[in-house]
Amino acid sequence: MAQSSIEWTEVTWNPTTGCDKLSAGCKFCYAEVMTKRLKAMGQEKYADGFKIIRTHESELTRPFAWRKPTTVFVNSMSDLFHVNVPLPFIKRVFDTMNQTPRHTYQVLTKRAELLEEFSSELTWTDNIWMGVSVEDYRVRDRIEGLRNCGAKTKFLSLEPLLGPLPDLDLTGIHWVIVGGESGRKPRPMKEEWVEDIRQQCEAAGVAFFFKQWGGKNKKAAGRELNGRTYNEMPAEPSLRREAVLA
Q: Which InterPro entries does the entry link to (predicted)?
């Protein structure tokens, strides 16, 4: 477990490490930069570098030691549904999440086709939130793969947002995170793109979370939109069922 500065989670947990670049949102991959740094620091977990996918058996028992209910971002340094992560290991990660219902797990992937393919093989307890990254219009088909999986809570990470996303189909989606790119050469994000997505979420009754404007100095740029911060989180599945029944 590592304490996280990501605004929408508390800690990170990485039962796998390593990845490769898949689409435009990967250009300035945070995990790749961090892997190089951690490897240089001599951390064995990252000794093979970023392009080698590794599974870490020792991580599978770690969440059992966390007594306090915690919000956990799973695989901030990898993608659990990468083609080189064996399905039996994914099942073991899910088994850990299934057996620790006090924690809320946030799993995020760009590989929605494998998510959809493997979904029926996995046990989707209520504490597992599943999301896909959608950085621009070209990859919005990932949303359909997410919609077809068995997760009770489904979310979109529109970060780094690289273009407008009009007319999103938010059916079955419970949470949308939007954020701009940060770093030395960030690609710009326009306010009208963000506001349009916010309005779509409002119309669809979907929780909206604005993470950051990004830029070279993301702290200075802040995370206010329309003069306020948006920190909405998805309702628990049981509360959504009660709302439907009412």
A: DUF5131 (IPR011101)
